Structures are given as structure tokens and as C-alpha cells.
Amino acid sequence: MPRFHVAAALATGDTLSVPDDVLRHMQVLRLQRGDAVVLFNGQGGQFEAELLELDKRAAIARVGAFQSREAESPYHVTLAQGIAGGDKMDWLIEKAVELGVGSMAPLSAARCVVRLAGERATRRHAHWQALVRAACEQCGRNRVPEIAPAQEIAGWLAALPTPAPGELRLLLSPRAKLAFADLPTSAPEGQVLVMIGPEGGFSGEEEALAIGCGFTPLGLGPRVLRAETAGIAILSALAARWGGW
Hints:
By secondary structure, this protein is α/β, with parallel strands linked by helices. It folds into 2 domains: 3-67, CATH 2.40.240.20; 77-242, SPOUT methyltransferase, trefoil knot domain (Alpha/beta knot), CATH 3.40.1280.10. It has helices spanning 20-28, 88-98, 118-139, 153-159, 204-212, 227-242; strands at residues 3-5, 15-17, 36-40, 46-54, 59-67, 77-82, 103-108, 146-147, 151-152, 168-172, 178-179, 192-196, 216-219. Strands 6, 7, 8, 9, 10, 11, 12 and 13 form an 8-stranded parallel beta sheet that branches. Helix 2 links the parallel strand 6 and strand 7. Helix 2 runs parallel beside helix 6. The longest helix is centred in the middle third of the chain and has 22 residues, at 118-139. The chain is elongated, with a radius of gyration of 20 Å. The mean pLDDT is 94.
């Protein structure tokens, strides 16, 4: 059944005029009046709904029964990712949402190919937010992960609080001595923060900054992974190890 995210309060029995972006999606899917859909607003759970009207200009849905369905992992992972160039960042964001990431922080690092500032950064952030919502619609998540605007790595690290009890901070690095097999076999009580560099990796100075903020370098084996591959690999491995599937 088609699923759509709407940024509005939802309640059984209400009628809702769907936003323009959702209308366009419904038109692409060739939905018709009377079709059943699922609506969610990112606050948890989802609602059955019926399309009362659907034409070129508007769509009206009647909100039906609430379903408490969730598809979240039993732990929260924040992925702090050095901004990758081209379509790589888009692909990574989409797949990270499918794999259960809790939030994302795109970081501008010394070796980033892409530089974002001003209006370009604002447009890119809006584009990333739309990707996150679309990925939630596709994969069945009813809670929408937060993706922060792009920021400099030094500023992001400086804003982090002191690590809370049970929190785990990991820095993926080909120079790490800690192997994935050395991680705890059960999920930590606190959140998990994972930092991954851009195409050229983090510089030595950036890694030192991260280590000074409580991050432990972690290796993922003898092969050097691409920036967009590393995030998928660590999220998948953690899900298999800690029960996120």
C-alpha cells in the first residue's frame, strides 16, 4: 500500500488536504479516488486513509484507523559523514535511512570535494531532508531521522557534550587498532556516534580532534572502503551484531 509522509497532525476521522509534493507523488503513482493509502507524520505509528478526491490540483484524504507499527532499531546511531561528492551523498543518505540510522550530521572536512555555503547549502539541506522522508516512505519507517545542515567538522566536534555514560563514539579509520570484532556483543545503553571521512578520509589533525572528543578509531578489515561504502558497511554490521534487523 502506498505510504506518504505529511507534516501535519493526524487523527482518525479527520479529512486532510494533502501537500503539493505528496499530490505530485500520488499522481505519478496514478492513484485514484477511493484508493487506500497509509499516512504518517514522523511522530510514530501510521494511519490508514482513503482518497476522497484526487485531481490535477488537489487531493483530499479521510484519515482512518491508527496503527502503532514501528520499524526502529533498538539503539540510536548518529552518522557523522564527511560530505561526499556527486550523487554519492544522496545514495548514502537513502541507504542509511533504510538501515535504521537515527540521525545524520553531514560534515565539511579538509579533503571534501564538495564545499557548501550560503544558499547552496540551504538548498542541499532541503534536498537531503526530502530524501530522508522518501526513504522512510519506501522502507516502512514511521519516525523520520533528523539530518542536520552541513557544518565544519571542528565546530561540530566542539559542540558535542561530554560523552554520557553508556555512550559509544567510533571513528572509522584505516589506521585503527580496534577491530569490529572487539566491539561489545550487545548494544550500549547510550547512543552511538560514528564518524566517517569523505573520499580522501579525515586528515591526521581531524582524527586527533575527534579522538580528543572521546572517539575511538575503529577498523573494518584489511580493505580500504569508499566513503559511501563505509557507512553502509558499519550500519549493516551493527544491525547484525546488535539486533537491528
